Structures are given as C-alpha cells and as structure tokens.
Amino acid sequence: MLLNITLPLPLYEEFTYYSEENLPTERVIGCRVAVKFNGRNITGIVTSVPEKTLYDKLSEIIEILDDSPVLPAELLKFCKWISEYYLCPLGEVIRLALPSLLQTKTSKTASLTGLNCTTGLSERDKAVLEFIKEFDPVKLEEVEKLFGTVSAQAISNLRKKGLISVNSLMEHKDRSVYLKGYRKTVFWDVLLKTNNSVRGFDGLDQCFDGGDTVLLKELKEKKVLPSAIKKALTDGMIKEEMLKKDHMARLMAESVSHKDMPELNEEQRSCSDEVITSINENKHRTFLIHGITGSGKTIVYISAISKALEKGRTAIVLVPEISLTPQTVRRFRSHFGNKIAVLHSRLSDPEKLENWEKIRLGEYPIVIGPRSAVFAPLKNIGVIIVDEEHDSSYKQTDTAPRYCARNSAVMRGFFNKAPVVLGSATPSLESYYNAVSGKYRLLEIKNRFRSAVLPVMKIVKKENFSEMFEKPVITLFCKELALGRKIMVLQNRRGYSPHLICRSCGKSSSCPNCSVSLTYHLDRNRMICHYCGYFEKGKDRCGSCGSENISFRGAGTEQVESELKRIFPGTAVLRMDYDTTRKKDGHSRILDEFDKPGAAILVGTQMIAKGLDFHQVSVVCIVNIDSELIFPDFRSDEKAFQLIEQVAGRAGRGAINGKVIIQTFNESNQLLRYALNHDYLGFINEELNIRKMTSYPPFSRIIIVTLSSKDLAGVKKTAEELYSELSSVNKSCVIYKPVDKMVLKVNNIFRLYILIKSSIINDRSGKISRDLVSGVLGKFKSSSDIKIDTDVDPAGLM
C-alpha cells in the first residue's frame, strides 16, 4: 500500500513510500513509521494514504512502529489547520504536538551472515567475530566498549570477508524513569506483627500507604530510620526493586481537601447556563466572559467542565503562564480530584511522555497547561477554557509554528463540536471586537464574588529620580505591614539594572553579539545579555576609559528587592522573575512561600500580575508604569492597560479592601485616567477608534515576514528583492518596505522585516494575504545563508 509520510523537518511536502502490509486506512493514518531519508533513518507520521502516485520508483518503509495511531484523526486534522493557517510545515507542527521522546533512536548492529570461512583473520578479528556470534545481533557500540577503537578495523575486515552484515536498528526503548525502591513480600503481614515493636517500623508501614511499593526517596523524605529498612530487608519482609516513577504522583501527592461546588450567583449562573446549553447540544460556540478581577470566572469554568465530564466528555484548560499552573491545578483538584493531567515545557521529557500517553489512553479527562496544552491528545473534547485570554504569551513568537493558542483553541473546539470559553477582566481588542460584532457571544460578570469590592486606584507622581519609592508609598507600606498584611510590587524588568553607564566618557556596557546593552545581575555579579545569553563579570571601572565613575541607570526586580530589604530590614521579601523560577518547581516554591504567614512582600515581573489569588494582599504597587507606556508598538497601550488592571486585581480579593499605587512621571496620561476608574470599556472604545483610523487589528489582517542573516548587506538586498516580488503580484494588500527590527542584531544575526496588511472588509479570514505570502515565498530564491520566517497575526511589530 502507498503511504504519504510527513517528516519532522522544515519541509512543506509529504513523501510517498510503500509498505508490503495492506492495512485499513484508519489503522495506519497517525501512526509513526521508520523510513530512510537522505541516507539516514528517521521517524515520520503517516498523514494520508494515496490511491496512486506519479513516481515510478518508491522506497519501502523500514517499519510501522505503532499498533494504533499515536496522533488521533481529530488532532491530525487540527495540526493540518495550524500548518495551513500559520504558513508552517506540517512536520514542525506535529513535532510540537508529539513529545520529543516519541522520536526513535537509530543504532548500528552487526549480524552473522552464515559464512564460516575464517582463513586470513587476525586474532583480534576472530575475537570480535566470536563476540558477535555470542550476542548476535550486537550493537557496534557494545563491540567498541569491549575491544576499543581498533574494533572498527575488525568490523571492516569481517564485512569484506562476508562474515557479518551491518544494519541500522530503530530502537523503541522503554522511556520510563526507574528509581530505587522496595516491594512488600508475601511475608509482610505475618512479620509485621512480630516486628511492630521495633523502632521505626510504624513509620515504614505508613509509607506504603496501603500499596505494595514505596520509593527510597519517599522513605528518606519521611525520615524512616535506615535501621528499620535494613531489618525489613534482612527478615525478608521487603525486597529491593527498581520502580517505575509515576510523574503525576508528585503533583497529586499534595493533600487538597475536596470542595463542594459553591452556589453560583446570578451573573455566574447566567454565564454557566449558556455554556452548558452548548455542551448539552454538542454545539460549537465561542463565549467571551468579560468578568472583572475576582468575579469568580473560575467557578463558571468548573461548572462547565463538570457538565462535560457528566456527559462522558473531556476538557482542556489553558493558562498563560507556567507560574499559574500549580494554583490552577490545586483549585481544580479540589473539585475533580485526580482526574487532572498537566502538560508544560518545564516537565522533563519522560514526564511529558508519561502524561501524554495517559491522556491519550483516557486516564485523565482534564488537561491543564500553557499554550502547548492545546495539542493535548484528548478524545471527545466537551469544552475548552482559555483563562486570561488576552495574554500575549498565548502566541508563540520565537520558533515555528508561530501559532496563537487562543485562536487555535477556537478551531479545536470547532473540530470537536465543543464550546470554547475565553475569560478575562481585560479582553484583547480582537476578542472583544469579535464579541460585540456577533462572531462570539459576550457574557459579563460585573461584580466581584461574595461582595468583594474592586481596589482603590491611586496615581502617585514621581518627584525624585533617585528615589525608587515616594514617601507616601513607603508610609502606606509601613501601615499595611504593621497590620500583618501582604504587599505585591511590580517591576516589569528583571536583573538589577538594565544600563551601566560611565559618567566620564558616556559609554555603556553593551553586548558584542547584539545591539542591546548588558543588564547587571547583582546575585551573580554579572553583566548579561537577555537576548543571546552572553555575559561578563561585573565591572567597577569603565571598560573604555578606565574611570571608576560609573553608575546604574534604571532598575530591575533585583534592585527593587534590595531597596525594600533596606527600607524594611527583617521583613521577608521574595522575588519572582525568570531568574528565580528557572529551576523546576520554582514557581510553586515561591508562591507557596508567599502564602505562608512569614512572607510579607512579593516583588516580580508581569508573572505576578496573572491570576494569582492571595486573600492577604492589601496593596499592589507598580514601581514605574512609564516604561510600559512608551514602547513603540501598536499594541503597547492595550498591553499597558491590561497589565495595570490585572496586577491591580491581585489586591483586596478577600475581606480586606485593596489599594493600588501607580508611580509615574506623567500623571496626565489618558490611559491612566481610564485605569484609575477601572474603565475598561472607555479605554477599549477609544483604542478601537485609533486602530480603525490606522488600520490595525482587529480592522486588518497582518503578516510579518522576517529575513535574517549574518551578512547585513546581503539580507538588505534580499529583503528589497522580496519586497519587489510581493509588490509585483499584489492586488489588494498594503506592503510596507523592509525596515530593521527594533533590535537589529541578535547573536550576530541581522534582522529586517516586511509588513503585509490587508483590510478586514476584503480579507476577513486572512486568506488573501496568506496566499500572497505563501505563493511568493514558494517560488522566491534566496541565498542559503538567509533565513525567512513568517508570522501570521503577530503579537506585535517588534
């Protein structure tokens, strides 16, 4: 039979192979196959089964690797839509959808041919041949381990003699992780009664928690005495064993008390009823819940998921940040128990794979995670939730596919005849426009849950460049801390200071690989580039003129943390940014610490603005909003307003009334006037008018084509040629001349971009602009050292 194979490579075409097996189409589409491609073995996915081919000669597949499809038909259809809409090779989408460990490993093996003529062989050759006879077939790496590098010549000699053949083997290894542990023997119950008085045995018994196995790591964590373990081993009560690690067990081990579904208020009930109606009718519809911060949108989500599960269906819950995953999992576990799986990038490859396989097999009907969780291999999806739908982190920007998980979730819901619920206190302009124009259904929750009130907003004018906090702010902090309350402080820039400037010659420390300055990090005493990772040791004198008269310009989270510790000595100040959360479980560790009575202040980047729920927080302070207001992008005002309103929503979520302080040098800014009154509708209507006048989304479709190369002159020339080619065939789009990216050089790569814009009136689906770009790029010839990337519906122009 003929098989069209998609390979995990940046190639747009399928490749046709044949198989001697004749299997049903539904049995083979979505399965992995091993094939030979360009002289090497590679794993691909069967994506279609053609009836005929134009080629006279085809290669045979090496092996079908699965008994049933690993990529369900619906998920494959979704991947194909992502590929077509975002102008990305299907192989790159599938590579994102499947865990990396689903890729097989190739190794070389030696096998006997059946010939026995050993005349003329050296003693070394004979020894190698005997080893191969004993373990036939044997991996060449095993031969080299025993005989060293000289084995290569012996293998060559044996092949020339025709005594052995060397083949490629596709390995399908056990991808599980195993840890040292113990298993109860048949004598456990009898001997337990005898040894129960032995010191430490009661603790050992409790650690098994009704099961038959326990990890050594768990015994150590629970401080079981080594003598008790040794005694149990000696008496034959337990035996040592390598146990398979259950990666979800760690997440689910935390005790979470069950909570009954709280009674929904009138606004929540109205929202819930509409979503549940769609679930009952197996009907796709997209709902936008515009609910103010603290309004209880999560309860509506839980209500909808409960109905989906009741009908035997499944659910996806998307959150914008990994930092939100632990809190979200706890909330949902309190209602759904251990029916939840987590998928995100901080999981190790074995963890991702184990969760993925259990989801595919139906063991977990609810999946929670950031944007990539939209590819969860759930069957029969009943509802998809996109929390904080406005957040820009739902858009993948650095690598292909450059998809938006929010918009993609809408399509996945469509393929599953399932409702999609978008929730936010500050909806994106695109979603809000879709709702008011009738494409989505707008649902509103205008009041906070359980009669909590919105925090009082206050603008504090910055009077002193040298002081981080104005005196009224410090006074307020003192008062709230004295009452035992907690404070959150936002500074949306990590590190200690973004600029180290010499006051004598005026030069600043900059990255040799990128056109940006180096950021000073106090905790490591390093100047670091946040684009390429270049670093150098912190300096106490200017690298250009040698002067010691150097100073910091601007502040990051480290400096804010340091200043707060200076002002409030003895007060526990925590910091949450990329640097403190890089390690595994970094987010949950910091959030758990802040939830304890001892921690008083949490400093962080925009991570702390997203969905966190701490009832003890009474004050939120934005150190300097001005840097957010002057960013040169058409979305900058929208993002600034969302950031203010979202971080403000962390204050006063319980019985305590909240206060929000915004420090600025420009208190007359109109955006701040809207924020002061929590006036989202006033802001968004003005912003929509501006977007309409300037023809930016949601009133247009835009695509950015980025060209990058180490050769600046070459990439500029190619960009001009591509611009000319696009312009020559264009009929209805606006194409802007190539311009430099805001940061022109990153890691010694120069970057330019071309903006393509089409009116929403003429190009509602964006197909006209996508066809223009894909048609031209499909024929465009450029130098091999110039990379061309496309970004459909970009999050910004920078």
Largest sheet geometry: 7 strands, parallel
The CATH superfamily of the largest domain is identified as: P-loop containing nucleotide triphosphate hydrolases
**Radius of gyration computed on alpha carbons:** 30 Å
On the 0 to 100 scale, the average pLDDT is 89
Helical fraction: 25-40%
User: Widest sheet: strand order?
Assistant: 14-15-13-16-17-12-18
What is the domain tally? Answer: 6
Strand percentage, roughly?
Answer: 15-25%
N-to-C span = 49 Å
The CATH topology label of the largest domain is Rossmann fold
**Shape summary:** globular
The count of DSSP E runs of length 2 or more, i.e. the number of strands, is 34
CATH architecture of the largest domain: 3-Layer(aba) Sandwich
Please, how many helices?
Answer: 26
Which regions contain 5 or more consecutive residues with pLDDT less than 50? none
List strands and helices in order, with pairings:
Blueprint: E1 2-6, E2 15-18, H1 25-28, E3 32-37, E4 40-48, E5 63-64, H2 73-85, H3 90-97, E6 105-112, H4 123-135, E7 138-139, H5 140-147, H6 151-160, E8 164-171, E9 178-184, H7 188-195, H8 201-208, E10 213-215, H9 216-221, H10 226-234, E11 238-244, H11 247-253, H12 266-280, E12 286-291, H13 297-310, E13 314-318, H14 325-336, E14 340-342, H15 349-360, E15 366-369, E16 381-387, H16 405-415, E17 420-424, H17 429-436, E18 441-445, E19 456-461, H18 471-482, E20 486-490, E21 499-502, E22 519-521, E23 526-528, E24 535-537, E25 550-553, H19 557-567, E26 572-576, H20 586-595, E27 599-604, E28 617-622, H21 626-629, H22 636-648, E29 659-664, H23 670-676, H24 680-694, E30 700-709, H25 712-729, E31 734-735, E32 739-746, E33 749-759, H26 767-779, E34 787-792
Parallel strand pairs: 12-17, 12-18, 13-15, 13-16, 14-15, 16-17, 19-29, 20-27, 20-28, 26-27, 28-29
Antiparallel strand pairs: 1-2, 1-4, 3-4, 3-5, 6-7, 6-8, 9-10, 9-11, 21-25, 22-23, 23-24, 30-33, 30-34, 31-33, 32-33
Helix pairs in contact: 2-3, 2-16, 4-6, 12-13, 22-23, 25-26
